[in-house]
Amino acid sequence: MSRLAILHDGHTPEVLAEIEQAVEENGFVSDVGRMLMYRRDLFGRPFSEALQAVMRGPSEWSVGERELFAAFVSAQNQCPF
User: Fold this and answer.
1) What is the pLDDT of residues 40-59, one digit of tens each?
2) Residue 10 lies in domain
3) pTM assigned to the model
4) Strand, helix or coil for residue 47
């Protein structure tokens, strides 16, 4: 199984149900979303908490500026996020 295939086939039944519900509501779940849901305690929660601290915590830059920086870097990396 490839590393990306595990994001589609390697989830527990409970997480698969969450993914199916998200697909019904939004039409899709990105690979980033699937990655954050895979082994949440190991990566998903700690990464999400760190991301929230960086993007929403105290800073000289506004939240909007930080979002713009993230969008610019994603565009430079040809990432759809």
Assistant:
1) 999 999 999 999 999 999 99
2) 5-76
3) 0.67
4) helix
